[in-house]
Design brief:
Layout (H helix, E strand, L loop, with lengths): L2 H21 L6 H8 L3 H5 L5 H22 L7 H17 L6 H10 L1 H5 L2 H22 L8 H21 L4 H14 L6
């Protein structure tokens, strides 16, 4: 794919992201994306066959951008506790963001879509995050920053808490204080006292 094609595809994905944020996944049609991009139907079909393909690309790009932001924020001399705190602070920002979130569309995609069940990017991301957090906790234990007898179990628990908070943020609403309380509980569970 040439530079112009790569740019066009990225434009489509970024524009489609806004459409998915606004409408969720279920209500979006190829026509909606054509209109939002102000391109021909054939122009869209050169790159994508359906909304499923577009949405998977939106999620892939979103994941890459999130990883980049997080990894660029880590200082060279950061401790395991610093890195975990940074990760949880990034999650907090995402949880409290009222607009411009794909959470509803992501859940709709996975509840409604066989493709999502076969190739579950969300599960892969969850499992990958568990492994990373587990290694981080293990490092913190080795360095005396954390106390934890079951690093994998704690990592899974952290991810389940975050996933539950995401659902709560979308359904019943959540306050900054509630998120802070849960994050503080995570640190206390690791034997870290926070001011």
């Amino acid at each position: 794919m040439g530079d112009k094609s790569v740019q066009k595809k990225r434009y489509i994905v970024e524009t489609a992201r806004r459409v998915f944020v606004e409408k969720g996944f279920k209500k979006v049609t190829m026509k909606d994306i054509v209109e939002a991009c102000d391109i021909s139907r054939g122009g869209l079909y050169l790159y994508f066959e359906n909304t499923n393909q577009i949405f998977l690309e939106v999620m892939r790009l979103e994941s890459e951008e999130t990883d980049d932001v997080f990894s660029h924020s880590i200082a060279d001399d950061a401790t395991a506790a610093d890195i975990l705190l940074l990760f949880l602070e990034e999650q907090k920002k995402e949880l409290l963001r009222k607009k411009d979130t794909l959470t509803q569309a992501i859940y709709e995609f996975y509840f409604e879509n066989e493709l999502g069940k076969k190739d579950n990017m969300l599960k892969r991301q969850f499992d990958s995050a568990v492994k990373i957090i587990e290694k981080l906790i293990e490092t913190g234990v080795e360095n005396g920053e954390f106390y934890c007898e079951d690093c994998r179990g704690m990592a899974r628990n952290i991810m389940y808490v975050l996933e539950g908070l995401k659902i709560s943020a979308q359904t019943i609403g959540i306050t900054a204080e509630a998120v802070e309380r849960e994050l503080l509980f995570i640190f206390r569970s690791l034997g870290v006292t926070m001011c």
